[in-house]
Amino acid sequence: MTTFTFRRQLTVEWGQCDPAGVVFNSRYFEMFDVSTWMLFEAALGVAAHQLASTFDIVGVPLVDARANFLKPAKFGDVIEVASRVAEFRRSSFDVEHRITIAGELAVDGGESRVWAARSKDDLEKIGAVPIPAEVIAKFG
Question: Strand order in 104-114's β-sheet?
Answer without folding.
Answer: 5-11, 78-88, 92-101, 104-114, 62-69
